[in-house]
């Protein structure tokens, strides 16, 4: 059953919340209109993390972003993790809940789950489409929310894939009624790594379903043939070509809630706020 | 025939650095690319090693960064996380350390790891209001004997044959150089701060008996109550008492 209460993130910049930024956010949020937290960091029984989330969620709209549900996994979803997610969404009442088109949990031969702590890729076939849709249905049913599914950053192609990623995502939306989270940096990373046009990807994306955008930094490397290999590291400023692609997205889609993701080598608050100001400068004219 | 890459195949190649990149995964030119596959391999090993180091900072400091990274590589393959709750990963780490040959010259490592596990559990433990200490002072002596104490969800004890509290304090809090001999420790939480406090000899057993619901007079028979009480209060370990 989907949530009947229309609650959504504002068409403003948001930031991925880090404890180091608690005072900055409380005292001097600048253009930051909402925060996003990784669900798995707030599933303990108590203590400082939950108290901070409670205080922040009274001040700012909240997005809960899961990284560990393994929606693209071959095995069943972990019922205990789904229950933890339902509990967190129940008490923190986020304006948005999102997860990834990826897998992370593998079931060993004895059935024991093994969590690999990365967003691992899946091929796009009729079989994986059916599985992902089943899992999205299950998550939406269990949490009572319409979830957003995020496009991954890719380093490799599966020879067995039969759908382009944008078509795969469009089908998931059509079959499950979920929304999408469009990570603009992931599009640029994947397009560079796999040799397709990032603008072409954007132009094929089902924008009606997009409830949130992500912007983050990437690292640059090369593969064994000298071809560029970008790595989705979330450890630095958003790159200039990603800002250009973001502008292209806003021209096509209009304003959308836009998250600055900076998870590693976390900067001080003024540096992060400056990235949010840069997003605001592009959002304001189309709002 | 197109190669199908199952997640079992992917996972096996991910955790074995000597394994070949699965056929059916290619770069844009259609060729197999170990460098590209290595991005996932590195992400898994590096992120889990970092999670383990975050959970066991004193163990990491005691063995040094290079040793820890190599040891984490062995541990994460033998005992991968069972769920995305990485704050709970590492319950097997003390036992692993006890059997890890290269760490044998540091026989206190497993107990240091147990202490760090307890501190992390305390950080995430359910909130519980501390006992109003005035209620203890108001108890008549015979009521004290039959009283049962309630402990916070964060409370935990360890009786170690090593000076585990001193080793931990020297590395986590710039405490003095540790000496020798056994130590007993109580972990609790004050407000949001996990606390590790030294217990008097025998104090861990008394505390555990009280946690099991044994009345104070029975649990602490023959023990000097004053230093025990001081430790319980210092660690914020008490929440209530039934007179």
From TrEMBL, chain A:
It holds the Pfam family MbnB_TglH_ChrH. Coiled coil: none annotated. InterPro entries: MbnB/TglH/ChrH, Xyl_isomerase-like_sf. SUPFAM superfamilies: Xylose isomerase-like. Gene3D superfamilies: Divalent-metal-dependent TIM barrel enzymes (3.20.20.150). PANTHER family: UPF0276 PROTEIN HI_1600 (PTHR42194:SF1). NCBIfam families: PRK05409.1. This is Uncharacterized protein. It comes from Hasllibacter halocynthiae.
UniProtKB/TrEMBL annotation, chain B:
Residues 6-97 form the Putative DNA-binding domain. It comes from the Bacteria. Pfam families: DUF2063. InterPro entries: DUF2063 (IPR018640), DUF2063_N_sf (IPR044922). This is Putative DNA-binding domain-containing protein. It comes from Hasllibacter halocynthiae.
